[in-house]
Write a structure and sequence with these properties.
The protein has a four-stranded antiparallel β-sheet. It has a four-stranded antiparallel β-sheet with strand order 4-5-6-7. By secondary structure, the chain is of the alpha+beta class. It has helices spanning about 1-20, 125, 335-355, 365-385, 385-400; strands at about 25-30, 40-45, 50-55, 70-80, 85-90, 105-110, 115-120, 140-150, 155-170, 175-185, 200, 205-215, 220-225, 250-255, 260-265, 275-280, 290-295, 300-305, 310-315, 330-335. It folds into two domains: about 20-335, Glycosyl hydrolase domain, family 43 (Tachylectin-2, Chain A, 5 Propeller), CATH 2.115.10.20; about 340-400. The protein is about 20% helix and about 35% strand. α3 (about 335-355) runs antiparallel to α4. A hairpin with a 6-residue loop joins β2 (about 40-45) and β3. It is globular and about 80 Å long.
Length: about 400
């Protein structure tokens, strides 16, 4: 009896420690529809609603080093099942080349949130035997996300595919709407390749920006998605029709791969159209969740709070400053991970500041010393993963700047 009680208390204690493990929210996002804005940025938060950008709002990974299009959108970040590996998937796209210029996505892997292995996958090249995905017919591959499939025991990457041969007319006869459906693939063990796409969800009209969350209470998977494009009647809706409004909806399934059943209602703040890029994540040490989404027509993000079934509006992001998120995602991180990221950010800022500082009046010796310290600091940023190294390099730079 005493042994049983001891084991129960130990489980309760370790469970409590686990619940207290994560203290901070990390938001990965892109900033706007310019080549500079279409880069990975990070921000941190103590409460999940109010964020401060790392690196003074500058990119944390340069798009021209990871993307075929030299720009990225829609970063989705997650922590792996082992608790220490991170995966990020992104749309490989440059919007100033047009909304039909995107043929693929990017897979990324890291163990420190700073240095990332990356693989860009062009779908027409990767899947040449799928004729419907050739470069002429493929409209776009958008907004990938990743989730662990406990049945397949693999990481499932899901995304929206639009094809020109699926386009349908809208109420404005001048326009045809690209028909996006959600598909999924399984990543290989190294997270460098994908299996052939399989259909995950067909809304009956265009749908994009899928975000799957497991509801432990109801033991089901919840797919949050946006009904995309111009408003049309969806014949699969209640009473044979549903007027789409470019908003956030839910669908549910007992299996991560579906089939999913749509719930015909909107979840975002009433009257706020259009919105996209929803992301749902739990509040730390709480049973409640945050639903956030991009009010892209109004230039801000919106945060709501709820129980995965319904949500209440909380706040909008400011429309100025360095935190100007577009479609992104949030994970929980530890104090140690936060310290490492903040130390990396401070060193990166210091390098940027000393590079911008005037060199007029510096002796040849002082200029050489400055350049040597910059080179050493940049090497530290590129090769180190610990706060101690970042802080040491920063202090040396700050000393010479005084």
């Amino acid at each position: 009896m005493k042994k049983t009680i001891l084991i129960s208390l130990l489980c309760l204690f370790t469970g409590h420690i686990s619940a207290q493990k994560y203290t901070t929210y990390l938001f990965a996002f892109f900033a706007n529809n310019t080549p500079d804005g279409e880069q990975i940025r990070f921000a941190l938060s103590d409460d999940g609603f109010n964020y401060t950008s790392l690196n003074e709002g500058r990119p944390v990974v340069a798009s021209d080093t990871i993307a075929i299009k030299k720009s990225i959108r829609d970063p989705h970040i997650m922590r792996a099942e082992d608790g220490k590996t991170f995966y990020m998937v992104l749309t490989d796209m440059r919007s100033n080349e047009g909304w039909q210029s995107n043929d693929g996505l990017i897979l990324m892997k890291s163990t420190d949130l700073i240095h990332w292995q990356h693989t860009a996958i062009d779908f027409p090249t990767r899947f040449p035997n799928i004729q419907e995905l050739n470069a002429d017919n493929l409209h776009a591959v958008w907004a990938p996300q990743t989730i662990w499939d406990p049945v397949a025991k693999k990481y499932m990457v899901y995304y929206s595919i639009g094809r020109h041969d699926w386009e349908y007319p809208t109420s404005d006869k001048r326009f045809f709407q690209p028909y996006f459906k959600l598909f999924y693939s399984y990543a290989n063990e190294d997270f460098t390749d994908l299996s052939a796409p399989k259909l995950l969800f067909d809304f009956g009209k265009a749908s994009i920006d899928g975000d799957i969350v497991y509801d432990k209470k109801n033991k089901e998977y919840v797919l949050f998605f946006k009904d995309e494009g111009r408003s049309v009647i969806n014949p699969l809706g209640p009473n044979g029709g549903w007027k789409t409004h470019q908003g956030i909806m839910r669908a549910t399934s007992k299996n991560v791969t579906g089939p999913y059943t749509t719930e015909w209602k909107y979840l975002h703040k009433p009257g706020q159209f259009p919105v996209e890029g929803s992301s749902v994540f739990p509040l730390i040490n709480s049973d409640e969740y945050i639903l956030m989404y991009d009010c892209y027509a109004n230039g801000h993000y919106q945060f709501c709070k709820g129980d995965l079934t319904s949500f209440t509006y909380v706040k909008d992001t400011p429309t100025k400053g360095t935190f100007t998120p577009r479609h992104g995602s949030v994970i929980h991180i530890t104090d140690a991970e936060r310290t490492r990221l903040e130390s990396w950010s401070k060193l990166s800022i210091a390098v940027n500041n000393i590079k911008k500082a005037p060199t007029d009046g510096l002796s040849v010796q002082a200029l050489a010393q400055r350049n040597t310290l910059i080179e050493m600091a940049e090497k530290t940023l590129a090769t180190k993963s610990d706060a101690k190294s970042f802080n040491s390099a920063r202090k040396k730079l700050e000393k010479i700047m005084k």
